[in-house]
Amino acid sequence: MTPEETVDYNIKVAWHAISRMYNTQAAKHDITTSIGFVLLNIDQENGTPATKIAPLLGLETRSLTRILRSMEEKGLIYKQADTQDKRSVRIFLTEEGLRGKEISRQTVRHFNLKVREKIPQSELNVFFKVVGQITGMIEGKTLYDDFKPKPLRSESPA
Q: Does 133 have pLDDT greater than 90?
């Protein structure tokens, strides 16, 4: 099986192309794709608990900490102690963060509209179904339950 025939290769190649495209657009506004996705996931009125953002984006906490620090330095967000739970920190958008969120929203919408112009809904429905099934298999953690690697063939002496 060649890499081009594997499911994971095609998903990875597609995501890298999308990510590069988003990063090109984001760079025009001094942000990154990661920052754009974080901005999109922060509640404009109530802020969002910092602990809720990483799981929404599939990020490790360490990665999110670096991104949030960068966003704070750029003046996109500010942190505030939660009024209900003083141990928790909520992330809020600044005016600049709101502008970045709107740019990110428009960028994602534009991409999706362009894809929908070219790819029929019936094909997208199949795509969403298949991706959902793959995700379910992975999240179900049963994908490798019956996996037993075959022993390597021992090479014969020369």
A: yes
